[in-house]
Amino acid sequence: MNALLLAAERLVGRAPQANTAPPTGVVLALRAPGLVLDAVAGTRSPDGAPMTAATHHDLASVTKIVATTTALIRLVSDRLVGLDEPVRRFVPAFAGGGKDAVTVRDLLLHRGGLWEWWPLYVAARGDRDAALRHAAGLPLRYPPGRERHYSDLGFMLLGQVVEAAAGQRLDAAVRALVTEPLGLAATRYGRPAGDEVATSARGDDVEMAMLDTGHPYPVPHRAADFGRWRRGPISGEPNDGNAHHALGGVSGHAGLFAPPADLVGFATALADHAEHDRLWRPEVVEEFFAPGPDPGQSLGFRRYELAVGAETVTLLGHPGFTGCAVGFVPGRGIALALAGCRLLAAGPPVPTDALWAAARAAAGEVLTSASNHPAPPRDPRTSTRNR
C-alpha cells in the first residue's frame, strides 16, 4: 500500500486535528515525472454513495486560482490588465474612501483593505448585478496596502476585472482563457459537468451561524433577515452562500466544480508552465509565482513548503472551504490535488488546512521514496483504489 492511499484511508478514519471529526470521503491525486497516483477512500454523500476518482467536487475558494488568478495571468500577459493599475479603471463603482489607490496587485495579495466576507445575498435578493455593486460600494475595513486580510470580496472584484478586460461574463472568460486552453473539459461554473457529485454540506448552517453570532465577522445582519436558506444536503450547486444565493454561481472567489483529474491537470499545467508559453509570458508567470510581502502569499497563490527527501521545495496552491485544495511545484512537474467531504462529518469538521497538510506530508513521503527507489512504470489500473 503506498503512502498516498494510506493517508486517504487514515483521513476518513481519523481527523488529523484533535476535537474534530474526519471527512466522510477523500480523493488524493499526485503527479510527478514518472509518477501517476490516485487514492480514494470513503463516501461522497449522506446516503453512503462511494467516493470515486470520477466524483465532481465544489472547489469553493480553489476557484480563486483555477479561474481568477490564472485568467489574470493571461490578461496581464496580453497587456489587457496591469498589476499596478487601479481597480476602479475596471470597476468604476469601486471608488472613494481610499479605494482609488487600491490596485489589482493589492487584491491578489489580499492587501486591498476590504472586508473579508459580507452576506451580499441579504440585500441583493438574487440580483447578480446588484450584489456586485453592493460589494464594490462597501467601505474599506482596513487601510489599503498595509496588511494582508484574506478577502472573498477582493476576489469578487477581481472577477469583475476579468470580465471588464475580457469583454464577457466571467464564466465565458474563464472558459476561453483557462479551461479550454488547458484541456479542463469538466471544469465549469455553477454546476458540475457530470452526474456523480460530492455533497458539500448538510445545509446552509455555517453561514446562518455566522450571521447570528457575528463570528468571525461582525456583519449587521441575522439569519432571519434572509428567507432562502438551504436546509437539506447541498449537492450540484455552490456551497458558498454569496456564489449561490447572490451571484448565480459565477464569481471570482467561488463557484467552480471539477473532478480530481481536472484539478490535478490544472496543477500539472501550472507546474510545467514553460510548456504553455503560447498562453502567457514567462516573466508574468514568474511575477505571479514570486513571494509577496506577506509570508505564505504570492499573487493569488498561497505558498507552502513540501519536504522531498533532504530538500524542501515551494508548492504554490490554494485551499477551499469544502475540503478541496490544489498545489504544484513550478519547474518540477509536481502536482497535488485534494478533494474531500469534510462538511459531512458527524461533528465539528476538521479544517481544510489540516487535511491539506496531511496530503502534502503524504505526497512528500511518496516523492521521497520514488526519488530514492526509482521503479519501473506501473499499470495505471493499480494506482487507484476505492473503499
From TrEMBL:
Domain of life, per lineage: Bacteria
Key word Nucleotide-binding present: no
Record-linked SUPFAM superfamilies: beta-lactamase/transpeptidase-like
Keyword Hydrolase: yes
E.C. number: 3.1.1.103
Molecular functions (GO terms): hydrolase activity
Region (Disordered): 366-387
Domain Beta-lactamase-related: 24-338
Biased composition (Basic and acidic residues): 376-387
Annotated keywords: Hydrolase
Top EC group: hydrolase
Protein name per its UniProtKB record: Serine hydrolase domain-containing protein
